[in-house]
Amino acid sequence: MRKALIALGMLVCSLGTPAFADFGISFSSPGVSIGINLPAYPTLRRIPGYPVYYSTAVNANYFFYDGLYWVFIDDDWYASDWYNGPWYLVDRFEVPLFILRIPVRYYRYAPDYFRSWRVDAPPRWAERWGHTWEERRRGWDQWNRRAAPAPAPLPTYQRRYSGERYPEHRAQANIQSRNYRYQPREPIARQYYEQRRSQARPEPQRAAPQARAREHDQAGKGGPRS
Q1: What is the DSSP letter of 76?
Q2: Half-sphere CA count of 15, side-chain side, radius 13 A
Q3: CB 25 within 8 Å of CB 89
Q4: Strands across the sheet containing 68-73
Q5: Which of 90, 203, 205, 214 has the maximum number of C-beta atoms within 10 A of its C-beta?
Q6: Element (H or E) spanning 78, and its range?
Q7: Residue 135 and residue 197: Cα distance in Å, rounded?
Q8: What is the pLDDT of residue 198?
């Protein structure tokens, strides 16, 4: 049933927001439920040699990379810019390379088909996702380990928002625009951030102190004179 709802959401999104469909992520608001319900900001640790963080406490395959949180569940990848969602389904052809390269040992809830694979190597995605995927993502597991990019800074400002204080979808965009200036590298992450920043409401401009004083004087004298 959940898969059907996700597919429907992707169809609606592709009809309503074609500019964002090209990157393989569905921005159907308010996202989809994947069973993640965190009471507070999670502890995240760096994977040695990778620009990726992982969690040992979240009951999911939970990561952070290039300004987004990533979760692998039911053979699919989901992304969010806030630690507790909303979550968006990512097309497997568009999942970033460094997410695909995460070694098996860092999957807290690895599916059964991972168990015969080396723990110090990434999952064998081509075996799972087929020849078409392999052709389009050829070379995904080949990279210079000494030239890995620096990790994105963790959005630790989100620690202030938990439980009932966790912001709704629109408020998240405003809070992020004020607190997190990171510019993503990955095309799909850049597209995500562009969409979110377009949702942020502009800050209201405050009148200068002198102007407010004049307005107060005029109000006390019965208004401005002509």
Answers
A1: E
A2: 5
A3: yes
A4: 45-46, 52-54, 61-65, 68-73, 76-80, 88-90
A5: 90
A6: strand 76-80
A7: 34
A8: 87
Q: Are 96 and 50 in contact (CB under 8 A)?
A: no
Whether 53 and 47 have beta carbons less than 8 Å apart is answered as yes
DSSP count for the chain of H helices, then E strands = 7, 6
CB of 72 closer than 8 Å to CB of 191:
no
Whether 80 contacts 196, CB under 8 Å: no
CA distances, 33 to each of 38, 54, 66, 73, 92 (Å): 13, 20, 22, 11, 18
Contact between 36 and 82 (Cβ < 8 Å): no
Q: Note if the pTM is more than 0.85.
A: no
| Amino acid, single-letter form, for residue 104 | V
d(CA 68, CA 187): 12
Highest mean pLDDT among 15-29, 40-54, 135-149 belongs to 40-54
Cβ(106)–Cβ(62) under 8 Å? no
Compute the average pLDDT of residues 4-16.
39
- Looking at the DSSP bridge assignments, the partners of residue 87 are 32
Instruction: Single out the residue of 70, 73, 81 nearest to residue 111, CA to CA.
Output: 73
DSSP string, 26-73: ---TT-B--S---SSPPP-EEPTTSSEEE-SSSSSEEEEETTEEEEEE
Q: Residue by residue, what is the 3-state secondary structure of 128-181?
A: HHHHHHHHHCCCCCCCCHHHCCCCCCCCHHHHHCCHHHCCCHHHHHHHHHHHCC
